[in-house]
Amino acid sequence: MPRVLVVYGPNLNLLGEREPHIYGHDTMEAINARLQDLARAEGVEVEFYQSNSEGAIIDRLQQSRKKVEAVVVNAGALSHYSYALRDAIAAIAIPVIEIHMTNVVARGEFRTNLVLAPACKGVIYGFGVNSFLLGLRAAIDLAKSRDQGSGIRDQTKTPVPVVQSVAKPEARGPKPVSANESAPLRPEAKARRSRVKRRR
Predict the structure, then answer these.
(1) Domains (ranges, CATH) in the chain?
(2) Is pTM beyond 0.90 here?
(3) 4 pLDDT exceeds 50?
(4) Which of 49, 81, 100, 125 does the annotation list as catalytic?
(5) Helix (H, G, I), strand (E, B) or coil at 43
């Protein structure tokens, strides 16, 4: 059965208490219950992990690289500066969906810097709890495809263009003459030129 890992970063264990006017009143446990229901309905296993430590999250991703088919990650503030986490996502070679509950690009300049995004399969933000649900739906599709042996990473690689050099057939008929060279004279033209010279 395909398996998806959902990762929560720093301070997300305080969802429901932390700035509810921004993040809402749903706790992490309540969100997990909704994600579990969705995964069960789709025939997918889902596991959850939360840590306030950058290193612990990296360790968990590395440990899971051969155990899950896709990852959903809300890395919190790490999303804006953790190049170590970005490298870890690139290294595990499985599709990762980055999500944020709020519209991060509307919350200050530093939050617009999503350093994980280039290493992720996609980014979803601004839909509250539904960001998790949308992210899990995307991850489920990816996980099922990988579980069936489609090879998501291989399918998304840009094919290398092949340039072929094809020799053009030579055109029939007289060869065109450039402005810098004169055309060869025909026999009758040579005779006329010779007569003109003798008259002179």
Answers:
(1) 3-153 (3.40.50.9100)
(2) no
(3) yes
(4) 100
(5) coil
